Amino acid sequence: MSPGKLIVAAVLAAALAAGIVLALRSQSPAVPLHATVLEPPAALPEFDLVDHNGDGIGRSAFEGQWDLVFFGFTQCPDICPATLQVLAAAKAELEDRGQVPLPRIVLVSVDPERDTPDVMSRYVGYFGDGHLGITGELAEIRKLTDGLGIYFRKQATGADDYTVDHSAAVLAVDPAGRFSAVFGGQHVVENYLNDLPVIMEAG
Amino acid sequence: MRPVVPAAVLFMAACGSPQPPLVAAGVEVTRPMPGRHMSAAYLVLANNTDGDTRITRVSSPQFASVQMHETTIEDGVARMRELEALVVPAGGSLTLERGGKHLMLMQADDVGKGVTLHFHSGDTLVLSVDYPFPEERG
What is the ipTM of this complex? Predict the structure, then answer.
């Protein structure tokens, strides 16, 4: 190869390398801007609950896909539906963008007394297909929430009614069934669009 | 000398009614979730008077009861509390929104095609709002 051709080849190689670096850099930022990532991720505790079809469900149900897990209750008229709408909208937008994989959306009831599987089924179905509702014995729900640092507490609102105070966080659980990131209280679609691909890529 | 009548008074006389003291905008009422009998209502209340308006009761013919609530997120925990009153400041507005102050409509009777909300200050009905549900999306 002549010196001239070598120079051309070197310049082309350098340009190609620069192009690759730029292309990589123009991808999503390498760190989540809104979620807090757990290093290392924490395995979910064991639990024995039921899904929205009434079938038994345990820790292994969280293996094999990414999950976005929210703790709430179906008689919560404000923040719970608003959060599930945000998660469903973020998932739909990520799907439109060709994101693979996509997370499953999971609602764990903190009001199992009223949230029977039938109630959960109609509720999670309202927000779209493929969502998972989890309910069951209070003591088993406590195993899950205590293990994840999720707070909830029943609060009377009248003689025969109550609401449930609960952590507003959304947890990202990786395909190995490990709690790997947490989104804090104010849920906005854009935060998920930005951070989820990064979290799922890193995980 | 001829009396000078302010333009605003003429306008009011022409309209037959003064500017309403309280106005609602951006009304949204969520449909009760499947299997549930409760909704939430969000809107902006504007007060055109020079005194605060204190909403002490909200009622609806389609619901057994309406409560004024506030959702707060403190230390990562979402809480919902009943409020005794909503205060719309003089010449200002109050926003009822998701994750903040809102109306909780309980025990739906028949919401049909929409919802009516009655806002009371003391014993007085100060505002009535009709919210027709938009056509169901296909």
Answer: 0.70
